[in-house]
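Support reply, case 0932

Customer input (verbatim):
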Amino acid sequence: MNTENKVRRVLKYPPREAHSQLTRLTERELEVVECAVEGLDAFETADQLGITVEWAFTIRRNAAQKLGVTYERLIFLAVCARFYEGENGGEK
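Our regenerated output:
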């Protein structure tokens, strides 16, 4: 089973849809999610973006709630969207 099929099986929809879901997030929400994808925790995210730790947690929570998913699933969606963009030459 190739990577895309594995992703589809876990997500229940293709990486392209994961990408389109993330377009609903604000620029700041996407920055926070991107930090998490890079492996940064909320403290490191706050430091990198020049925000408080409390604000980093709030943004994470709000982004997940906006999409109706857990924060962990939101990170997974972001990874899948990255996969989709990579497979399509950075096309959005």
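We compared this against your earlier run and they match. Two observations from our side: The mean pLDDT is 80. The chain has one domain: 3-87. Please reopen the case if you see a mismatch on your end.
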